[in-house]
Amino acid sequence: MKDLSVSLLLDFYGKVLTDKQRDALELYYNEDLSLAEIAQHTGITRQGVRDSIKRGETILRELEQKLGFYEKYHDIGGVAENVINLSENIRQINLRHNKSAEISEFCGDIVRLVRPLTEQEQ
User: CA-CA distance, 45 to 22, in Å (whole number)?
Assistant: First the structure.
């Protein structure tokens, strides 16, 4: 069974891989090709494709373990979602009490600024 987290790690760290490793991982995880299909497509043996994929996976996991960029990105997305929810709650309370239009406007601005941090992960 394929570990689809590798596809996400590829987005973060793919540029550090060799072209052969990156291509094999992209075809395997993102295009869902089999080892045999990748071998035929790239002109290398099935074992060579497997070795490229395994080595690439190892490099990506080691980089994430050392740098943690994906985990931090994922955490930021969670915080951003909380900020959006709190802003929406403030706006609703403000509207219920017929208070400041400016507060509602600021809450909308916060949501528009933070929303892209939550959408990129999907």
Answer: 16
Give, in order, the Cα–Cα distances in Å from 102 to each of 72, 74, 87, 105, 113: 33, 31, 13, 5, 16
Within a 10 A sphere around the Cβ of 44, how many other Cβ atoms?
Answer: 15
| pTM for this entry | 0.68
Tell which of 48, 67, 86 closes a domain.
Answer: 67
Which range among 2-11, 44-53, 106-115 shows the weakest confidence by mean pLDDT? 2-11
Q: Which two tokens stand for residue 42?
A: 């790239």
pLDDT, tens only, 6-34: 999 999 999 999 999 999 999 999 999 99
| Paired tokens of 16 | 């550090």
Residue 35: both structure tokens together: 């080892």
* Spatial separation of the C-alpha atoms in residues 119 and 95, rounded to whole Å: 27
Please indicate, yes or no, whether residues 62 and 105 belong to a single structural domain of this protein: no
